[in-house]
């Protein structure tokens, strides 16, 4: 009897990856707000494609694959967000450096004039 219970337990479908799918959706939304499609288009495309594949796998009751794809989608979206943040910070840094250079040139001209 115990053997039948073990076999029955192994035959059941793993639970739906609802939390993993929701986490991936949220990460993609956050990445979009971080302007990731502008700065990390490939990662965003991968995140969306993997999320769509995860949903398909869940509909086909391939829960392990669905969870794995959802987790990969989440990772891609988080990478896209990080790349977007770095790109934006680099752009701000570059603008600040240009301003500093302009101020230094102005100071140099003022010193030479006096």
Write up what this structure looks like.
With 114 residues, the chain is an all-alpha fold. It has a domain at 16-85. It contains 5 helices and no strands. The protein has helices at residues 2-11, 18-33, 36-39, 41-59, 63-113. α2 packs antiparallel against α4 (41-59) and α2 (18-33) packs parallel to α5 (63-113). The chain is rod-shaped.
Termini gap: 100 Å
- Strand content is under 5%
- Helical segment count: 5
The number of strands is: 0
Structural class: mainly alpha
Spatial shape: rod-shaped
What is the makeup of the main sheet?
none
What is the radius of gyration computed over CA atoms, rounded to a whole number of angstroms? 25 Å
Uncertain spans: 3-7
- Which range best describes the helical content: under 10%, 10-25%, 25-40%, 40-55%, 55-70% or over 70%? over 70%
- Helix and strand element order: HHHHH
Mean pLDDT: 90
Would you summarize the structure shown here?
With 114 residues, this protein is mostly helical. Helix content is 88%, strand content 0%.
């Amino acid at each position: 009897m115990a053997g039948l219970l073990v076999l029955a337990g192994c035959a059941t479908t793993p639970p739906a990856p609802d939390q993993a799918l929701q986490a991936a959706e949220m990460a993609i939304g956050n990445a979009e707000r971080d302007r990731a499609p502008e700065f990390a288009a490939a990662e965003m495309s991968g995140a969306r494609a993997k999320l769509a594949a995860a949903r398909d796998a869940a509909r086909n009751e391939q829960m392990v694959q669905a969870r794995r794809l959802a987790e990969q989608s989440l990772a891609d979206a988080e990478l896209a967000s990080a790349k977007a943040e770095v790109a934006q910070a680099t752009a701000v840094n570059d603008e600040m450096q240009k301003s500093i250079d302009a101020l230094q040139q102005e100071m140099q001209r003022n010193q030479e004039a006096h």
